[in-house]
Design brief:
Elements: E1 2-4, E2 7-16, E3 21-28, H1 33-39, H2 51-75
Antiparallel strand pairs: 1-2, 2-3
Length: 76
């Protein structure tokens, strides 16, 4: 992993022989929507096939369900 301006990036480097250069392909290592906001990245910036989107969205859904559960318990 590479640490870039407060955000961890995970990925892999490839050697491109035709250009004699290195290409880094990676994505931010984020878990929460708040972390996404701090980086200035939007959910739409993350490719659909990247699991990071799913991790963030599932986490937000779980947080929302827990909040609803607490509110329901208060009403009982």
């Amino acid at each position: 992993m590479i640490h870039l301006q407060g955000t961890e990036i995970r990925g892999q480097m490839f050697h491109v022989e035709e250009r004699d250069c290195l290409l880094f392909m990676g994505s931010p290592n984020l878990q929460k929507l708040d972390e996404l906001k701090c980086t200035g990245i939007y959910i739409s910036d993350i490719p659909i096939h990247d699991a990071t989107r799913d991790v963030i969205l599932v986490g937000e859904q779980a947080k929302a369900q827990e909040s609803l559960k607490r509110r329901l318990d208060k009403l009982r």
